[in-house]
Amino acid sequence: MINPKLLKQFIVEPGTEVDLKRYPTDWMESDEAKELGKGVIKERAAQVLEENRKELDATQELLYASDSYSVLLIFQAMDAAGKDGTIRHVMSGVNPQGCQVFSFKKPSTEELDHNFLWRYMKSLPERGRIGIFNRSYYEDVLVVKVHPEWLGPGQPAKPDKSFWEKRYEDINNFEKHLTRNGTIVLKFFLHLSKDEQKKRFLERLTNPAKHWKFSEADLAEREHWKEYQKAFEDAFTATSTKRAPWHIIPADRKYIARAMVADIIVSAIRDLGLEYPKTSPQKVKALAAARARLEKKPTPAKPDEPHL
Ligand code: ATP
Ligand code: MG
Predict the structure, then answer these.
(1) Residue 139: nearest ligand to its CA?
(2) pLDDT tens series, the chain, 308 aa
(3) Mutate to test the pocket of ligand 1, among 113, 143, 218, 228 (most ligand atoms within 8 A of CB)
(4) How many angstroms is it from 178 CA to the middle of ligand 1?
(5) What is the pTM of this model?
(6) What's the CATH code of the domain at 38?
(7) CB of 167 shorter than 6 A to ligand 1
(8) Which residues lie below 8 Å from residue 184, measured CB to CB, with a gap of 6+?
(9) Tally of structural domains, the chain
């Protein structure tokens, strides 16, 4: 387990005016990390991820058996920050029947014909399950804030400040509704530096096995880096709440991001103090009867009646 005190610095305290420059993208360069030593950290990160993967599987079973909560994990980031890889690594030990990943792309015409939260509501996890949103309703205050022309029909061409404030408010109300009805909401921003994004794009261009990951649209969005950072800051400032906090995870090193995310998820579920349902006296009786029935010696077969 990672020291909770260490992780605390990555949670956005409600009411904080977020300045992303104050959050590290490479935690290895922090004084704390230098003190611990890079080699030690790399090894520990692998251990933490492995321990948490196992624990997450057990915890998910308990979540299902106790049938009282669901968990919603939200991932947002700039391109190539490692959302897919983090989701794959962290969830790799979990029973696939207990979790579901939804990736949200550009909305369809049908989706644009509904209110902006509609498509996400339809994909919420059932009680007992973990739901993962790879991009989410936060896109509706991020990408479209940078490109208001993508807002779709019936929306203002030049949305003003109050338009976005209403969306933040809708999101906060939506999350309030979720959390007080048994959904644990954890939000992760994989915080990547512009330099590291460039390295990863170049790797996609150079390595034939990674060519498929490259999209020219990603380069176009990179040009809007500053506007995106500002949109993220505004969104985190407005929507990090006690009940649904934002975590700004340093993502320049994948193994650090994965270990931190896994640890935060496991700790949050563990904090629920879930227990397997108690067996009722009637059930104990029924189980004993079933056992007796199973263990009963079969009655020897009667010799065949002579055929007439
Ligand atoms: P990867 O590139 O790793 O496969 P991705 O999540 O970037 O994963 P893409 O298909 O490349 O997937 O991109 C999805 C695009 O859809 C993103 O550019 C995102 O901003 C956009 N998108 C998602 N939600 C919305 C939305 N509500 N309105 C407009 N665009 C959206
Ligand atoms: Mg993409």
Answers:
(1) 1
(2) 788 888 899 999 999 999 999 999 999 888 888 888 888 888 988 888 899 988 999 999 999 999 999 999 999 999 999 999 999 999 998 999 999 999 999 999 999 999 999 999 999 999 999 999 999 999 999 999 999 999 999 999 999 999 999 999 999 999 999 999 999 999 999 999 999 999 999 999 999 999 999 999 999 999 999 999 999 999 999 999 999 999 999 999 999 999 999 999 999 999 999 999 999 999 999 999 999 999 997 777 676 666 65
(3) 143
(4) 24
(5) 0.93
(6) 3.40.50.300
(7) no
(8) 69, 70, 71, 72, 268, 269, 272
(9) 1
